[in-house]
Amino acid sequence: MNIRTLRSDQIYQKVAQASPGEKLELFRNEMMAPFMKQWQIQQIPFRAEEAHGFDVITFNSMMHRSPDQITRQIAPEIELISSESFWSECEDAVKKSLHLFVEHGIELPVSDYLFTIQLGNPESRALVINEGYSGFGGIPGFIWGTILPNEYTIPRMKASLAHECNHNVRYQFIQWDHTVNLGELIVSEGLAENFATLMFGEELLGPWVTRTNAETLNRRIKPILREQLQLTGFDQFAPYLYGDEIAKLQNFEPVNMPYSAGYACGYYLIQYYLRKIGKTIFEATITPAGQILEEVKGFWDEETIISG
């Protein structure tokens, strides 16, 4: 297994020193180009044919520092993600996460992986709602972390990367296409967060779970989501997964759901499944959502107890 780290801190330092006219292409070629295969899979143009068209830079700048924001003024931010210990911890999280699947008998079809950590855009409301950190790992072979670096987020990056590695493994076995439904996303997020807590403990459980209490989960979230599991179309199921506030930011119709409703529901649904079936998180990660949901019908009627 070949796991490569793209040291974004070094790229940020170069871009910060570059002249305004050089920043864009320097950033595109050094930060975006190594992920070319991902952009092709996502059908995002690497370079817009016209000056104001949509491309990887436009897409990336929605949640991350754009090239023109990478100046000497953000040197303290860059410094916070420049230590050898930070990158070593992140790399260890990715390596350990992926190797654990192999150790548990899961033969991974993908052998080459690339990961990096990007500075988040402090003006991204979605990132602020997520308490300053996030990630993306849905395209096999490519893993991203996003961070507004501070004392709270930096220790949590390793758990976020473990979460994304779980997605990365799952989607080597589960086909993602237009038929993907809300049930799959709830299961997927539940698997990823349970894997992250297995790796690094419940003290690093993400806010997408911890901010939901038992009353909200049992009375408000579960009765609605159980009826929407077959819902397809990202614009249709995203509000149930992320909640109304983030849905509105994405110009989706709100559905009266609290923050990260689908994530919290998925976390406890997968805990129920693992207890009931006795499978490991490794086996469960590559199990189709339909099979998991068939086994957890009792979850929807049982009161979920949230400790702490």
Automatic annotation (TrEMBL):
GO terms for biological process: proteolysis. Residues 86-294 form the DUF2268 domain. The keyword Hydrolase applies. InterPro entries: DUF2268. GO terms for molecular function: peptidase activity. Keywords: Hydrolase, Protease. This is Zn-dependent protease. It comes from Paenibacillus riograndensis.
